[in-house]
Amino acid sequence: MLDLVGDTGFVLGIDRSATAIALAERGSLAGISSGRLAFRTVAAEDFVLARDEALFDLAFALRVGALDGRHPDAGKAALVRIAAALRPGGKLFVDTGNPMAEIPLPTVR
Predict the structure, then answer these.
(1) Residue 62's closest CA among 96, 108, 18?
(2) CB-count exposure of residue 65 (10 Å: 0-12, 13-18, 19+)
(3) Who's near 101: CB < 8 A, 6+ residues apart?
(4) Residue 79 φ then ψ, to 5°
(5) What are residue 16's phi and psi, to 5 degrees?
(6) Residue 60 has pLDDT above 60, yes or no
(7) Which helix (H) or strand (E) covers residue 29, if one does?
(8) Where are the beta strands (DSSP E) in 1-109?
(9) Can you spell out the DSSP letters for 33-47?
């Protein structure tokens, strides 16, 4: 993924599973040490940017239970949290097959 964001891009991966985050971190030491990649254990519906984090341009959701329709209340909360973490005009893409689907975001500003 870092190849796609260029030399100055930054990728933040989140997952509600601490086990998944630990595995991702173990497999991504070079990206983490470069300062261009970080991971955080948090559910999408609870995600909030840290004070020092800049807004993101894009968000990708892969196998996110809150966004697959099974948990509508969590899905609504996740969309609000994701929208708040994106710059104006930022986009969310969800893995619904090939290609990924762009999901409209609520206006939160």
Answers:
(1) 96
(2) middle
(3) 93, 94
(4) -65, -40
(5) -75, -15
(6) yes
(7) helix 29-33
(8) 11-15, 37-41, 56-61, 86-94, 101-103
(9) HTTSEEEEE--GGG-
Which amino acid does the sequence have at 63?
R
Q: Which two tokens stand for residue 82?
A: 């994701």
In the chain, pLDDT over 90 holds for what percent of residues? 78
Q: Give CA–CA dist 45/37, Å, rounded.
A: 21
* 65 residue type, one letter: G
Alpha carbon distances (Å) from 104 to 13, 81, 91, 108: 21, 13, 8, 12
Q: For 69-109, what is each residue's pLDDT tens digit?
A: 889 999 999 999 999 999 999 999 999 878 899 999 988 65
Terminal Cα-to-Cα distance of the chain (whole angstroms):
28
Amino acid identity of residue 14, one-letter, is I
Cβ contact 44:64 at 8 Å: yes
* Predicted structure pTM score: 0.89
Predicted local distance difference test score (pLDDT) of residue 77: 96
